[in-house]
Write a structure and sequence with these properties.
It is a single chain. The chain has 243 residues and is of the alpha+beta class. It folds into 3 domains: 53 residues, Structural Genomics Hypothetical 15.5 Kd Protein In mrcA-pckA Intergenic Region, Chain A, CATH 3.10.290; 73 residues, Pseudouridine synthase I, catalytic domain, N-terminal subdomain (Alpha-Beta Plaits); 77 residues, Alpha-Beta Plaits. 20% of the residues lie in helices and 27% in strands. The chain is built from 6 helices and 16 strands. Strands 5, 6, 7, 8, 11, 12, 13 and 14 form an 8-stranded mixed beta sheet that branches. It has a 4-stranded antiparallel beta sheet with strand order 2-1-3-4, with no helix packed on it. Helix 1 crosses helix 2. The longest helix is centred in the N-terminal third of the chain and has 9 residues. The radius of gyration is 21 Å and the shape is elongated. The chain starts with a helix and ends with a strand. It binds uracil. Uracil (URA) binds next to helix 5. Uracil binds next to helix 5.
């Protein structure tokens, strides 16, 4: 990829702005000054990128996969209404790069949220057809017994729906902590299922998406996942998907 295009792909500005950076000796890749807009850059080989002496987060190209431990009071939206956007947690230049969340978490839900620019991967992982498991740690408002798990696993009728929605798994860790796994991603699904089963969600944390957990990231922290990590974690029936 030509240097000029590469800088644009990193969200570093328009064609004109990136050309200016190159012409003014502001671009260093792997400690070497880059002053030719037509130089060939292998994205995988870029280890460090400095703009005007300042290190910039290098975004893997052409596709990247981010694991964010979503904090509470952030919206999974590019156009948030009430709270800041989860995308505001990334460095400035990354906000110029097109990226989408893989499904949504409510503003008050915390935990594993994937973000990518790979539309095909996003579509496959969120399609109910692929039954990707999402596990939630639910803090219940009222102490519950085994019957809550049975109700959720047998299926509940959501108020505005005419189909029964089942939990793929539901286990009580203690009377007010439920571990619940679902394979669809309907609007407010966990909260609505728990309400339909006669209880209420106090707090909601997604601790697993596929087989990915928060990988010891604190709330608000994120990391890039390699394509290998993505393949490994979204393997189903011995077939990889997403690539
Ligand atoms: N179910 C919900 O109710 N909220 C979420 O954020 C995710 C699943």
């Amino acid at each position: 990829m030509q240097l000029l295009k590469y800088l644009q792909s990193q969200g570093l500005g328009s064609r004109k702005q990136c050309q200016w950076l190159i012409d003014n000796d502001c671009v260093e890749i792997n400690s070497a000054l880059q002053n030719n807009a037509k130089s060939n850059i292998e994205p995988d080989d870029v280890k460090t990128l400095l703009i005007d002496g300042e290190p910039v987060t290098v975004v893997p190209m052409p596709y990247f996969y981010i694991l964010l431990n979503k904090p509470t009071d952030y919206e999974t939206s590019h156009k948030p209404q009430q709270y800041p956007s989860v995308f505001s947690l990334f460095p400035d230049h990354m906000r110029n790069i097109e990226m989408q969340a893989v499904g949504r978490l409510d503003a008050d839900t915390t935990g594993v949220l994937l973000i990518t620019n790979d539309g095909q991967f996003n579509h496959r992982v969120t399609s109910p057809k692929h039954k990707v498991a999402k596990r939630y740690r639910v803090t219940l408002k009222h102490p519950a017994g085994e019957s809550l798990c049975e109700t959720l696993k047998n299926g509940v009728l959501l108020h505005d729906g005419n189909e029964t929605v089942r939990a793929a798994d539901a286990v009580l860790e203690n009377p007010t902590t439920l571990l619940m796994t679902i394979t669809e991603g309907k609007y407010h699904q966990v909260k609505r299922m728990v309400a339909a089963a006669g209880n209420r969600v106090g707090k909601l944390h997604r601790d697993r998406f596929g087989s990915l957990d928060t990988q010891n990231l604190n709330a608000g922290e994120w990391k890039f996942l390699s394509t290998d990590e993505i393949s490994k974690n979204f393997q189903q029936n011995n077939t990889y998907f997403g690539f």
